[in-house]
Amino acid sequence: MTESTKYLLSEDRLPKAWYNLNADLPVPAPPPLHPGTGQPIGPADLAPIFPMAVIAQEVTAERWVDIPEPVREVYRLWRPSPLVRARRLEKALGTPAKIYFKYEGVSPAGSHKPNTSVPQAFYNKQEGVKRIATETGAGQWGSSMAFAGSLFGLEVEVFMVKVSYDQKPYRRALMETYGAKCIASPSNLTHAGRSILEKDPNSNGSLGIAISEAVEVAASRDDTKYALGSVLNHVCLHQTIIGEEAMMQMEMADDHPDVVIACTGGGSNFAGLAFPYIRENLKGGKTRVIGVEPASCPTLTKGLYAYDFGDTGKLTPLVKMHTLGATFMPPGSHAGGLRYHGMAPMVSHVKELGLMEARSYHQTECFAAAVQFARAEGIVPAPESSHAVKGAIDEALRCKAEGKAETILFNLSGHGHFDMQAYTDFFAGKLKDNTYAEADLKAALAELPKVG
Ligand SMILES: Cc1ncc(COP(=O)(O)O)c(C=O)c1O
Fold first, then answer.
1. Which part of the chain is the Tryptophan synthase beta chain-like PALP domain (predicted)?
2. What are phi and psi for residue 322, nearest 5 degrees?
């Protein structure tokens, strides 16, 4: 068994429940606040944009939340996803470390995102919703929501960050193949989009702006709700299926990780793999847990832990998180899904409690790591996932330098088949390590809402 490369669970071992870390944390995460009153929000505040089942999951104190059977049925199209021992990468690095990766690129949309788009579509359908408005960065989430919408008979409208809309036309085509409508953001369809375009007609867009557009559409139409692909508690909850499966698979491998690594955009694939291990750590486990983010948008490593809006248009409730400021415009990069000013409140809270580490890398060193990985293991990582690959390779090289045979587990959150232009640019030496201006960061942080 220990000589195996892939550790595969049979469908009957597909987890029956998602795991809620909130139930086990020594201190509860600070609640979201109403921006007008400064008081904790209640379900009624969220009802215009989310179905009640999702709102209930957002605030649940239950440790385990049952996965509905129709959702498990769809999950079985690609889950349980494989756990792979990266033996060829180990050899290429000459490291005594053992490297495993959980591969989420096997989903129909190519990433971990359908783990939450499917239940979100299911709950919306159950409550009679007809349309979903959402945003997407690089297109992974938009295509995942489009896929889930097609299975449950929902119309899906996706506001796609302009820079990615231009860079990744085939992601757009994939959304359209699933029957969704894809619009470049900022657009002139919404008040939020128009006000950005008035100030900057050439705006590249950002996730913060696209969220404002989608929330505005959902709030202004009775038949439409909003779906978010990351950040919120219910999204982190749905993603824990990754870690729950990985734990069973590591047991099959007769091994246990010393280090767990995932990239962090809004924090959901990290939460998905890491939260079950943090549960273990709270009971005496010793696994190091590392989130990896882009140096051009370093939310966990350079942001403030403060109440802020989740979107640029300031339409969302205030959530306590690591933030670069809701009006911060991260420089363009190919890891569009990591270009977000904030972080999941749960992940931020875990960081504040000292239960995780964070580090940042520039995009060219991540692409170099992704190419090394592809040449050893065959899979071309998504630019977002390449940050986790770089983190894992650095840990493996540390083990080599220290002569330690540690076990490293990382999440390969998606494949990069729609990102080949980025690879082409990398090979042509055209990729830049964009940095933000400190003055822009300062200005965005100066606009943080005052919370009493
Ligand atoms: C492949 C992939 N990995 C990671 C992310 C980052 O999101 P999160 O931090 O919520 O997992 C994205 C977001 O679009 C993505 O597409």
1. 77-414
2. -75, 125
Does the pLDDT at position 237 exceed 70?
yes
Separation CA 423–CA 430 (nearest Å): 10
**Contacts (Cβ under 8 Å, ≥6 apart) of 220:** none
Residue 321's pLDDT is 98
Q: Which residue CA neighbors atom 7 of ligand 1 most closely?
A: 265
String of DSSP letters for 333-400: -S-GGG--S---HHHHHHHHTT--EEEEE-HHHHHHHHHHHHHHHS--B-TTHHHHHHHHHHHHHHHH
Its CATH class, for the domain covering 6-13+68-110+234-446, is: alpha beta
Q: Burial level of 405, CB count in 10 A (0-12/13-18/19+)?
A: exposed
Q: Where are the alpha helices (DSSP H) in 113-253?
A: 114-126, 140-152, 162-167, 169-177, 191-199, 207-220, 233-239, 241-252
Q: To which residue do tokens 């959304």 refer?
A: 175
> Rounded distance, CA 371 to CA 434, Å?
20
Please list every protein residue whose CB sits less than 6 Å from any atom of ligand 1: 111, 137-138, 140-141, 230, 263-270, 337-338, 382, 384-385, 413-414
State which of 115, 413, 417, 419 you would mutate to test the pocket of ligand 1, scoring each by most atoms of that ligand within 8 A of its C-beta: 413
Which residue is it, tokens 């939020």?
Answer: 192
pLDDT value for 315: 87
Distance 405 CA to ligand 1 centre (A): 29
C-alpha 190/C-alpha 197 separation (Å) is 11
* Residues 357-393: tens digit of each pLDDT: 999 999 999 999 999 999 999 999 999 999 999 999 9
Whether this model's pTM surpasses 0.90:
yes
For residue 156, the Cα-to-chain-centroid distance in whole angstroms is 20
Asked if 16 and 72 touch (Cβ cutoff 8 Å), the reply is: yes
| Residue ranges of E strands in 44-87 | 64-66, 83-85
Closest CA to 249 of 96, 103, 76: 103
Lookup result for tokens 């590249």: 204
How far does residue 109's CA lie from ligand 1's centre (Å)?
12
Single-letter amino acid, residue 117? S
pLDDT of residue 2: 55
Q: What is the pLDDT of residue 167?
A: 85
Q: What is 114-135 written as a DSSP string? A: HHHHHHHHHHHHHTT--EEEEE
Sign (positive/negative) of CA torsion 308, 310, 311, 313?
Answer: negative
Q: Looking at residue 106, what DSSP letter applies?
A: T
C-alpha dihedral sign at 392, 339, 58, 151: negative
Contact between 71 and 342 (Cβ < 8 Å): no
